Amino acid sequence: xxxxAALADDTRREIVRLVAKNGELTSTEIGQNFKITPPAISHxxxxxxxxxxxxxxxxxxKRIYSLNGSSIxxxxxxxxxxxxxxxxRLDKLDRYVMKIKKERARVKK
Amino acid sequence: MLKNNVETIxxxxxxxxxxxxxxxxxxxxxxxSMPDHLSEWWGPDGFTLTTKNMDFTNGGIWEFIMxxxxxxxxxxxxxxxxxxxxxxxxxxxxxxxxxxxDVHFESKIIFEExxxxxxxxxxxxxxxxxxxxxxxxKYGAIEGGKQHIGNLAKYLEKLK
Lengths: 109, 160
Prior knowledge:
The structure holds two protein chains of two kinds. Chain A is an alpha+beta fold. Chain A folds into two domains: 3-67, Orthogonal Bundle (Arc Repressor Mutant, subunit A); 69-109. Chain A has helices at 2-6, 10-22, 27-31, 38-50, 69-108; strands at 24-26, 54-59, 62-67. In chain A, strand 2 and strand 3 (62-67) form a beta hairpin. The mean pLDDT of chain A is 85. Chain B is built from three helices and eight strands, in the order E-E-H-H-E-E-E-E-E-E-H. Chain B has helices at 25-33, 35-41, 129-159; strands spanning 6-11, 14-21, 48-54, 61-67, 73-84, 88-94, 104-114, 117-125. In chain B, strands 1-2-8-7-6-5-4-3 form an eight-stranded antiparallel β-sheet. The longest helix of chain B has 31 residues, at 129-159. The chains are: A alpha+beta, B alpha+beta. Chains A and B meet through helix 1, helix 2 and helix 5 of A and strand 1, strand 2, helix 1, helix 2 and strand 8 of B. Chain A: It comes from Leptospira hartskeerlii.
């Protein structure tokens, strides 16, 4: 799940937010919203593209970015899996501590 | 919080789990802090767990492998960032340490004594707020079904 690692960065999260809001943006338009250098922006875009968070298409000299829907869905599924896993894990924890509690009560008697 | 109350809330970039356990906080803390205990409950059903090393102190690392029923091994690396016995445990999940599924989310587990038992609150903080907000929309419908299954499972446990 490279997408999460890619989104662990504040600037990259801002970029994704911006692209999500506008649908499509060129790298120049994205860069205008930040105070960092064009090479830095281009590095962030490269990371987001390789993590499949953003799609990129070329038109003439422009690079146009949009949100990668299937990757976003994958992240959603991943979080739902985590929630499901933890709920089942806590169920198991509950059964386990009750078992220990019983065992220890028996020892005391 | 009511007894046996189980709640899962998605809020911003956090997932919050709330549960009541009918045991003292010391016992809950104990089963979170020792490899022998963790191997009994941490793995999902059908999984076994091997702890490679565990240093249950501030900044300490817990490295373990979950062995899946399909023969797959899943490496995990967790760093304990703040521990206060028996009040809370805060840790970071450092993924599998191999870079492929590196997800750096943070978990806070808080134990609050209520009479004879303990309320456990666990907060998971994910890097991206937008994702969780989107999940939240889907989540209501899905969770309803899951809770139902969970309750049924618990009921069947009682009948055993």
